[in-house]
Amino acid sequence: MTTKPRKALLTTLLLLLTCALALTGVVLRQQSYDVHEERVSVPAAGHELPGVLATPTGRGAGPFPLVVLVHGDGEIDATHDGFYRPYWEAFARAGYASLSLDKPADWLGQTMDDRARETADAIAWAARTRPDVDPARIGLWGASQAGWVLPKVVARAPAPGVRFVIAVGVAVNWDRQGEYNLRAELRAAGADADRTAAALRTRESTLALLRRGGSYEEYRASPGADRELTPERWSFITRNHTADATGDLRAMRAVGDVPVLLISGADDLNVDGAETEAVYRDLLRPGTLTVRRYPGATHSLLRTPVERSSWRLALTAVFAPRALFPPGLLDDQQRFLEGLPG
Fold this sequence. Notes:
Blueprint lengths: L2 H28 L4 E10 L2 E10 L7 E7 L14 H9 L3 E5 L10 H18 L3 E11 L6 H7 L8 E4 L5 H15 L4 H19 L4 H6 L9 H10 L5 H10 L4 E6 L7 H11 L5 E6 L9 H4 L2 H10 L9 H10 L4
Parallel strand pairs: 3-4, 3-5, 5-6, 6-7, 7-8
Antiparallel strand pairs: 1-2, 2-4
């Protein structure tokens, strides 16, 4: 190789190395959060669950008010694969610590009551064992399926009780949520009237099977059965398909003035945010509910064009994770916490 090609190759390699180092620096900065994370182990509902306690940096040793996170559906670890860290940072800027646990391995065997006991045990553990947590200022953040857990915990918590709730993309009634989700996805797919009617008939036959306690084998033999649905998932559905938050929301009202921030995305295909808002306004104490609905946001409260593009989602999660969320989402939660009493 002559001198000129060798120099050109070396220059190219140097430029590539410089770009790689610059990109690495960007990723490291974007993935750095202004919280201190401590790995913990929490006895909850018969399990010893690993988790993370994230506390504010630069604010001393506390005690800090605490946000206990309640997951949505699925197998989720304490960080939700890093998805929760921007939330923890926003909470920390308001002076709050965050506690999040891994879901138990047998989560498909749980009911919503089991999940409420698990959450209550996590609150009790933090209040009893952590000197860096203020036991009089503990509240809840929960997403999606957590909508059937949060009101239960608030209604049953012993004094001093749950002091606030942030509810993200939550429904009220399991069956109505399922029908809304089905219709929304059919509309998004451009389904015609015949296809929609057929899908709704299949749904009704599945509901009838659930109501009479039908087996997984019966479900598999039914027309239109989802071949990917496992026996464990069917069992989970049979335990929980009657979930309805109405009674627990009424019980919440009796507890006292618990501030609630209700959050939804305008492009949510899973949950009817307008219905949830109407029920919450009707059942909660006047003056306790704050509602935020974000245009261009999905059920996960991610920006719609980002979530619906796999490559954009992956790149944003790595290079700009805070930009996954619609404008104002993290700031609004920070301000809500800053405005709470105490």
